[in-house]
């Protein structure tokens, strides 16, 4: 089954707020086997609203709408709904009671605007909103079902979870969808596609593959449709086993696991500890480790050696080494990693030094030049990277490539 999602609000179109509702709704609907055909953000203009409702109904059976149901004058959706469905607003006593109860708990007196929140289209089905004053509404026209929800994210989520999705399960026929995402690092999208092309060509027609690149790596999402859940899970697992034979060194996890969390599991299983010595990443690499619960079991600490003085005084880097080779060099970054191991008494340490930008580059070392080193029990490996001119992207890519280097080393131990 296909549906459209429509978000209403001038504030979305001018960039004042970001439409997070649609992404959350699309994910939940996909889990239910419902395909989102289109996501549309439109203005509060009544003509625009009616035009969009009319066009969607020509192509889908179901339309989900968020926004425009508030108590203020700029919220015009209910009036437009009445015009579109040829109905009128009437007061719903259950909604009014819900509003009074909510306001009483908050110590707020009921006013005229709040009372108007209890006005609903006469021929609508009402979904009670236990977290807010605007109810959900369902109306039908020309074979299409329209469900309206408030734009406040936590209220919309409540209605979706407890009212809308149960309604869809009971009233619409959906197909089963199963997703499994393989998380890869170390291979650009084009190289990855070439490496697994024969495997991809052998996928059955009911299983689709999507490439989802990002600075963190490339995610490979396998989507199976239409079979029993257990059969789909088994078939996808067999396909992934074949994929692992081709790119085992580049797969670090599945679904939502982060590279740092994956490394953490390996460190913990081997009883190893790690620390960081960062220059260009400014602590971002340490943050990748510490954002995971339980990371104190293996991550002991980090040094942000942003200036040469800190490199010299805290990490014991020879000043002459910096003068000869520069702070952004193999020689310096390797010493940073080795001395971090010694300073923090860890089995491994990772160090970064580079020119994040936008300034500071030279013809010999342009912006985006980064050295990363990983020390392990007295030995050290290092790698030179040339990323580009975008500062934020350079920091992100440095962190992710550093994690990939750590993982490659760990799986050899």
Radius of gyration: 28 Å
**Overall domain count:** 3
Largest β sheet strand count, sense and barrel closure:
6 strands, mixed
In angstroms, what separates the terminal alpha carbons? 50 Å
Kindly provide the name of the CATH class of the largest domain: Alpha Beta
* Shape type: elongated
CATH fold description of the largest domain: Molybdenum Cofactor Biosythetic Enzyme, Chain A
Strand content: 25-35%
Number of strands: 17
Q: Stretches where pLDDT falls below 50 for ≥5 residues?
A: none
Report the helical percentage: 40-55%
Query: What's the architecture of the largest domain in CATH terms?
Result: 3-Layer(aba) Sandwich
Side-by-side strand order of the widest sheet:
2-1-3-8-7-6
What structural class is derived from the secondary structure elements? alpha/beta
Helical run tally: 16
Can you characterise this structure?
With 413 residues, the protein is of the alpha/beta class. It folds into 3 domains: 2-171, MoaB/Mog-like domain (Molybdenum Cofactor Biosythetic Enzyme, Chain A, 3-Layer(aba) Sandwich); 177-254, Alpha-Beta Plaits, CATH 3.30.70.2860; 259-410, Alpha-Beta Complex (Maf protein). It is 42% helix and 25% strand. The protein contains 16 helices and 17 strands. It has helices at 10-13, 21-31, 46-57, 77-85, 93-106, 112-116, 153-171, 189-195, 197-201, 229-247, 259-270, 284-290, 308-313, 319-325, 330-344, 391-410, and strands at 2-8, 35-42, 62-66, 89-91, 119-121, 125-127, 136-141, 144-149, 177-184, 207-214, 217-225, 251-254, 274-278, 299-304, 348-354, 369-376, 379-386. The strands form 4 sheets. It has a 6-stranded mixed beta sheet, with helices on both faces. It has a 5-stranded mixed beta sheet with strand order 14-13-15-16-17, sandwiched between helices. Helix 2 packs parallel to helix 7 and helix 11 packs parallel to helix 16. The longest helix is centred in the C-terminal third of the chain and has 20 residues, at 391-410. It is elongated, with a radius of gyration of 28 Å. The two termini are 50 Å apart. The mean pLDDT is 93.
């Amino acid at each position: 089954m296909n549906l459209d999602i429509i978000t209403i609000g001038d504030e979305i179109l001018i960039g004042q707020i970001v439409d997070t509702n649609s992404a959350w709704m699309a994910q939940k609907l996909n889990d239910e086997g419902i395909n989102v055909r289109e996501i549309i953000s439109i203005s509060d203009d009544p003509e625009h609203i009616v035009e969009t409702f009319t066009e969607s109904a020509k192509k889908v059976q179901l339309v989900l709408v968020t926004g425009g149901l508030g108590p203020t004058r700029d919220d015009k959706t209910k009036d437009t709904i009445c015009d579109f469905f040829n109905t009128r607003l009437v007061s719903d006593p259950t909604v009014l009671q819900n509003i009074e109860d909510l306001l009483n708990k908050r110590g707020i007196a009921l006013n005229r605007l709040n009372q108007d929140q209890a006005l609903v289209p006469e021929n609508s089905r009402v979904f009670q909103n236990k977290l807010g004053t605007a109810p959900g509404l369902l109306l039908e026209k020309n074979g299409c079902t329209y469900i309206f929800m408030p734009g406040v994210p936590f209220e919309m989520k409540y209605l979706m979870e407890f009212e809308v999705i149960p309604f869809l399960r009971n009233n619409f026929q959906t197909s089963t969808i199963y997703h499994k995402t393989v998380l890869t690092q170390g291979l650009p999208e084009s190289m990855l596609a070439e490496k697994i092309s024969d495997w991809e060509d052998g996928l059955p027609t009911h299983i689709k593959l999507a490439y989802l690149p990002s600075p963190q790596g490339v995610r490979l999402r396998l989507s199976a449709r239409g079979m029993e859940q257990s059969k789909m899970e088994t078939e996808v697992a067999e396909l992934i086993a074949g994929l692992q034979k081709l790119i085992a060194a580049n797969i670090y996890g599945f679904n939502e696991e982060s590279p740092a969390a994956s490394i953490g599991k390996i460190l913990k299983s081997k009883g190893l500890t790690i620390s960081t010595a960062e220059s260009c990443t400014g602590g971002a690499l340490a943050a990748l480790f510490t954002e995971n619960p339980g990371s104190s079991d293996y991550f002991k600490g980090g040094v942000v050696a942003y200036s040469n003085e800190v490199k010299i005084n805290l990490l014991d880097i020879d000043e002459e080494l910096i003068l000869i080779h520069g702070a952004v060099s193999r020689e310096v970054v390797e010493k940073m990693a080795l001395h971090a191991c010694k300073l923090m008494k860890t089995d491994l340490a990772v160090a970064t030094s580079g020119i994040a930008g936008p300034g500071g580059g030279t013809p010999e070392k342009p912006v985006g030049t980064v050295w990363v080193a990983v020390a392990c029990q007295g030995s050290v490996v290092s790698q030179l990277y040339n990323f580009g001119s975008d500062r934020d992207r350079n920091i992100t890519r440095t962190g992710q490539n550093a994690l990939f280097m750590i993982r490659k080393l760990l799986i050899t131990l």
